[in-house]
């Protein structure tokens, strides 16, 4: 289980996440036209999950999108390098009045337990003297995340691994470089996180996402698995036939994309049985 009290895991620590800021008069329209979430409907001082897709509807990056105000958007990137994302997004700026800035002067810290600043509502950003705080907790599980100024320090591998296990258990895919551009939002279950809007205007991949949703064409979806020695990219088997692939792995927690007609079957990963578990609720924003 994430942050097992029997493990020697610290209650706070640095997280190796990146931050990309979109600043300028057209920050909100630019983000609205590029990302899967309804940025225009998001209130200032709030955040939600979002993603950037290829034109074929594959997820390039998954992130928390913070609307600081009408001219400042921040992307909190757990896995995708901010510099690489900036370079790709820059091609679509054209005449938009925006600047894409990598947050080299920003640090990201996680904290487990209720001892962190909170705001009114789980999607509200809590502004404090040491930075902006997000509520990353699920039902019955308190986690806070801070984005603030400072020098980056080394992260404790045990804390980072426990944080990632909690993400996976709550249905947040963690997409390493080998998993970027491999999956559609439906395959990863981004609807559970409310990271995809079906009613906003166009964005890259929107036609594929809408068609899959309204025509009921999704044939694969996310499954939470308890595994031993799993690695991203490994096959998931049912009766010796490949029915899916591990996407994210942290310790004994894994998120896999599996054919929906085999999701309830007896599954094996790496030659060993892997138990299907329900996703923990409460991480949608």
Automatic annotation (TrEMBL):
All residue ranges annotated as the CAF17 C-terminal domain in the record: 220-276
Listed Gene3D superfamilies: Aminomethyltransferase beta-barrel domains (3.30.70.1400), Probable tRNA modification gtpase trme, domain 1 (3.30.1360.120)
Signal peptide positions (record): none
Pfam families, sorted: Beta-barrel_CAF17_C (PF25455)
UniProt KW keywords: Transit peptide
Name of this protein: YgfZ/GcvT domain-containing protein
């Amino acid at each position: 289980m994430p942050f097992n009290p029997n493990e020697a895991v610290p209650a706070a620590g640095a997280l190796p996440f990146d931050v990309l800021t979109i600043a300028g008069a057209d920050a909100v329209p630019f983000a609205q036209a590029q990302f899967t979430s309804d940025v225009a409907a998001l209130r200032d001082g709030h955040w939600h999950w979002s993603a950037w897709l290829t034109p074929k509807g594959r997820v390039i990056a998954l992130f928390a999108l913070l609307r600081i105000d009408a001219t400042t958007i921040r992307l909190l990137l757990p896995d995708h390098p901010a510099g690489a994302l900036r370079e790709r997004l820059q091609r679509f700026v054209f005449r938009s009045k925006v600047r894409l800035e990598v947050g080299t002067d920003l640090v990201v810290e996680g904290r487990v337990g209720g001892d962190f600043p909170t705001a009114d509502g789980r999607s509200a950003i809590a502004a404090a003297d040491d930075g902006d705080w997000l509520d990353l907790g699920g039902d019955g599980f308190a986690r806070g995340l801070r984005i603030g100024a400072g020098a980056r320090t080394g992260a404790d591998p045990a804390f980072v691994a426990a944080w990632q296990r909690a993400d996976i258990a709550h249905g947040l895919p963690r997409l390493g470089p080998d998993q970027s551009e491999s999956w559609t939002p439906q395959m990863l279950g981004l609807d559970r996180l409310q990271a995809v809007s079906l009613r906003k205007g166009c964005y890259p991949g929107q036609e594929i996402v809408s068609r899959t949703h309204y025509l009921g064409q999704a044939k694969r979806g996310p499954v939470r698995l308890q595994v031993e020695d799993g690695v991203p990219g490994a096959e998931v088997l049912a009766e010796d036939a490949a029915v899916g692939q591990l996407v994210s792995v942290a310790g004994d927690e894994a998120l896999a994309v599996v054919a929906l007609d085999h999701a309830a079957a007896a599954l094996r990963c790496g030659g060993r049985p892997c138990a299907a578990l329900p996703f923990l609720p409460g991480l949608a924003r």
